[in-house]
What does this fold into?
Amino acid sequence: MSNTAGLAIPCKAAVSWEAGKPLVIQQVEVAPPQAMEVRVKIKYTSLCHTDLYFWEAKGQTPIFPRIFGHEAAGIVESVGKGVSDLQVGDHVLPVFTGECGDCAHCRSEESNMCDLLRINTDRGVMLSDGKSRFSINGNPINHFLGTSTFSEYTVVHSGCLAKVDPLAPLDKICILSCGISTGLGATLNVAKPKKGSSVAIFGLGAVGLAAAEGARIAGASRVIGIDLNRNRFEEAKKFGVTEFVNPKEHDIPVQQVIAEMTNGGVDRSVECTGNINAMVSAFECVHDGWGVAVLVGVPNKDAVFMTKPINLLNERTLRGTFFGNYKPRTDLPSVVNMYMNKKLELDKFITHRLSFSEINKAFEYMVKGEGLRCIISMED
Ligand code: NAD
Ligand code: ZN
It folds into this structure.
């Protein structure tokens, strides 16, 4: 038992009071975990686009004040009633989606879309009692994605915590709790390229480069990176991307450019842009007969996917994936092991490091599209 178990913990958190305004680092109280919940001491957190979208709250429901953050790593401080598989001191990755273990999805080998703990961007409270565990002078502060990792302590449903190897460095593996696992899993679990095959990656941000890392691990021989931003190409070389296409530099559709480069189309494609045109191109650029396209990017809510049905009849497959098809609790420990066994490279994704007091700078980097992942240390 830790000596803070059962008590509220006063600690520092970065609170977002208003859309697009700098976060304020201030003292909050973090209530003890209730049934099936766990209180976690966050050691490192990083910033992902989803934090930015909801902080800007442009196309999203504005919910403020709120504590953002969902890509992180930490250590269990105390557990609530009924939690039997996690103990004080366990190293954990909080995940924005969960695994209750009981629902039809959790029981299916194929799905990771848990009914109980599936992502809910509009919920600012805990599931069990509809209340927040964060407060300032008794006034509640909203949670975000059930994780709220921009706080020294947070409370998370135990089904949203993956217990990982305590020897794994938390300042590296924290990036596996969202974007990197998403791209990696999209390739390894869904596109499944064969050794020696060709893979097209649309969008060379962190998610797309993680998909490229998956292609490298799978032994693909050609990895074609497609992006509208030429600056992305240099960085992408470190991720095994062998050829580049900028759709803006061609006057024919990019799917046609790729078909010409590959004698009819790539074996696999993974779309990581969220742009509807890129989604259609990603599908239409795969080879007939066997090509598989996987959509990862989150589109505008009104976007409609249009293609001629003949493209499907000609034996192309279109798939989509959520969190790389990984079940967070069951599968993340083995993704961490891939890093520990040096099969998966993570260091190349980490382009910036900041202390918690500088968290607003991490937002600036992301707004400017600078770098890939910025690790924020909660300790200094
Ligand atoms: P990012 O903004 O860093 O990268 C996207 C890249 O796509 C940019 O380099 C941009 O220039 C490029 N791009 C945009 N439109 C393009 C087009 N038409 N053609 C070619 N390139 C284009 O974003 P990211 O953090 O890497 O995330 C990528 C996507 O993955 C986002 O849509 C994000 O919401 C989504 N995502 C999905 C899941 C999931 O579970 N499905 C999880 C996390 C993130
Ligand atoms: Zn479930």
Notes: The chain has a mean pLDDT of 96. The pocket of zinc ion (ligand 2) is lined by residues 99-100, 102-103, 105-106, 114-116 (CB under 6 Å). The first helix runs from residue 49 to 56. DSSP finds eleven helices and 17 strands in the chain.
